[in-house]
Amino acid sequence: MRPSKRAPDELRAVSFERGVMRHAEGSCLVKFGDTHVLVAATLEERLPPWLKGQGRGWVTAEYSMLPRATHDRTRRESTTGRPSGRTQEIQRLIGRSLRSVTDLVGLGEKQITIDCDVLQADGGTRTAAITGAWIALYDCLAWMRARSMVKEIPLKTHVAAVSCGIYNGTPVLDLDYAEDSVAETDANFVMTGDGGIVEIQGTAEKTPFSQDELLALLALARGGVERLVALQKAAVA
C-alpha cells in the first residue's frame, strides 16, 4: 500500500491554472498533489551572443525553490552568490525539454525565458515544472501570434514529465516525498505528446534495478505522460 493509498499507476491530483501573473506573457500555476510550482514565460528581444544572426530563437529556463517550500527553511541561493548544482541541473533539464518541442526557426530571433518557482514541495518538483512550463510557453506563443509576431504557434507537440520509482519492491508512478525519500529506485521521464523520449534520469538508491524493472517504469511513465498531455490539451482548448 502506498502512503497516499493510490494505485501503482495512479497520478496525484493534477491541475493547471493559467494566466495567474498579470505582467507575464504566459503563466501557469501547476499542482501535482501538494507540489505547487508557479511558472512564468517572458518574451525577450535579446538572444545569447552565439545565436545572433542565425535566424532562430531560444527557450531557456530558471528554477528556484522558495525558502519555506520544504519542511525546513532553505536558504535563498541569491544569498550564496551562485545556484546549486541541483538547481543548475534542473533548469537545464527544463530548457532542453521545452526546446525539444519548439520550432526555434519559427520563433524567430527572440528568446523566451521560463521561470519556475516552487511554492510548495512534496516530490516531483522538476516534473511538475516541465509539465506546467509547456502551458506557460504555449500561452506566451499564443500572445505573440495574437500580435502577429509569429504566423503560427511554433510548437511541434506537447511535452510533459513524471517521476516513477520502485517503492517497497513495486514500480509506482508519480512519487510524492514520502515515497521518494525511501524508494529503492527513483527515475524521471520526460516525453513528448507523440510518445518520443526526451530524457530519462534513473538512479538506484539502494539495490540496482533490472532491465525488466526499467521497462516497467517506462510503461508506467508512458501512461502517466499520456494522461498529463490530455490534461494539457484540455487546459489550452
TrEMBL record:
<keyword id="KW-0819">tRNA processing</keyword>
<keyword id="KW-0698">rRNA processing</keyword>
<comment type="subunit">
    <text>Homohexameric ring arranged as a trimer of dimers.</text>
</comment>
<dbReference type="InterPro" id="IPR001247">
    <property type="entry name" value="ExoRNase_PH_dom1"/>
</dbReference>
<dbReference type="InterPro" id="IPR018336">
    <property type="entry name" value="RNase_PH_CS"/>
</dbReference>
<keyword id="KW-0820">tRNA-binding</keyword>
<dbReference type="GO" id="GO:0031125">
    <property type="term" value="P:rRNA 3'-end processing"/>
</dbReference>
<dbReference type="InterPro" id="IPR015847">
    <property type="entry name" value="ExoRNase_PH_dom2"/>
</dbReference>
<keyword id="KW-0808">Transferase</keyword>
<feature type="binding site">
    <location>
        <begin position="124"/>
        <end position="126"/>
    </location>
    <ligand>
        <name>phosphate</name>
    </ligand>
</feature>
<keyword id="KW-0694">RNA-binding</keyword>
<feature type="domain" description="Exoribonuclease phosphorolytic">
    <location>
        <begin position="10"/>
        <end position="140"/>
    </location>
</feature>
<keyword id="KW-0548">Nucleotidyltransferase</keyword>
<dbReference type="GO" id="GO:0000049">
    <property type="term" value="F:tRNA binding"/>
</dbReference>
<dbReference type="GO" id="GO:0016075">
    <property type="term" value="P:rRNA catabolic process"/>
</dbReference>
<dbReference type="InterPro" id="IPR036345">
    <property type="entry name" value="ExoRNase_PH_dom2_sf"/>
</dbReference>
<feature type="domain" description="Exoribonuclease phosphorolytic">
    <location>
        <begin position="159"/>
        <end position="222"/>
    </location>
</feature>
<protein>
    <recommendedName>
        <fullName>Ribonuclease PH</fullName>
        <ecNumber>2.7.7.56</ecNumber>
    </recommendedName>
</protein>
<dbReference type="InterPro" id="IPR027408">
    <property type="entry name" value="PNPase/RNase_PH_dom_sf"/>
</dbReference>
<comment type="function">
    <text>Phosphorolytic 3'-5' exoribonuclease that plays an important role in tRNA 3'-end maturation. Removes nucleotide residues following the 3'-CCA terminus of tRNAs; can also add nucleotides to the ends of RNA molecules by using nucleoside diphosphates as substrates, but this may not be physiologically important. Probably plays a role in initiation of 16S rRNA degradation (leading to ribosome degradation) during starvation.</text>
</comment>
<comment type="similarity">
    <text>Belongs to the RNase PH family.</text>
</comment>
<dbReference type="Pfam" id="PF03725">
    <property type="entry name" value="RNase_PH_C"/>
</dbReference>
<dbReference type="InterPro" id="IPR020568">
    <property type="entry name" value="Ribosomal_Su5_D2-typ_SF"/>
</dbReference>
<dbReference type="InterPro" id="IPR002381">
    <property type="entry name" value="RNase_PH_bac-type"/>
</dbReference>
<dbReference type="GO" id="GO:0009022">
    <property type="term" value="F:tRNA nucleotidyltransferase activity"/>
</dbReference>
<dbReference type="InterPro" id="IPR050080">
    <property type="entry name" value="RNase_PH"/>
</dbReference>
<dbReference type="GO" id="GO:0008033">
    <property type="term" value="P:tRNA processing"/>
</dbReference>
<dbReference type="Pfam" id="PF01138">
    <property type="entry name" value="RNase_PH"/>
</dbReference>
<dbReference type="GO" id="GO:0000175">
    <property type="term" value="F:3'-5'-RNA exonuclease activity"/>
</dbReference>
<feature type="binding site">
    <location>
        <position position="86"/>
    </location>
    <ligand>
        <name>phosphate</name>
    </ligand>
</feature>
